[in-house]
Design a protein that fits this description.
transmembrane helix, membrane, transmembrane, DUF423
């Protein structure tokens, strides 16, 4: 529970920092490579799911036994989903190697799984 909230806080702080870094220090490079939209998508998805992780962690504090397992899996799906989805987009932006995009759907699927598990857990709260 504490780990998921901490991960959400860390991912949220990094999303703000990366967003600011991209808007200022990297703007020219991202625009020149045509990757500004890709970078913004990575930051947005990271930030949205950072908030979701905090929510899951808070729900874990009041969840009954039936929901705890589902919430734990949900939080971990969000963590790995962000690492793979946003991470692959960041890798494309920083390296120009578009093959990193092949892993983005795996991360996206994990993010979807996280939301489905959250829905399932909510039915047990």
């Amino acid at each position: 529970m504490k780990f998921i909230i901490q991960a959400g806080g860390l991912f949220g702080a990094l999303a703000v920092a990366l967003g600011a870094f991209g808007a200022h220090a990297l703007k020219g490079m991202l625009e020149a490579s045509g990757r500004m939209d890709t970078f913004e998508t990575a930051v947005k998805y990271q930030f949205y799911h950072a908030l979701a992780m905090v929510l899951v962690g808070l729900l874990l504090q009041r969840a009954g036994e039936d929901a705890v397992k589902l919430l734990g899996w949900s939080g971990h799906a969000f963590i790995f989903g962000v690492l793979i989805f946003s991470g692959s987009l960041y890798a494309i932006c920083f390296t120009g190697i578009t093959k990193f995009g092949a892993t983005a759907p795996i991360g996206g699927l994990l993010l979807i799984v996280g939301w489905v598990l959250l829905i399932m857990a909510a039915s047990k709260l």
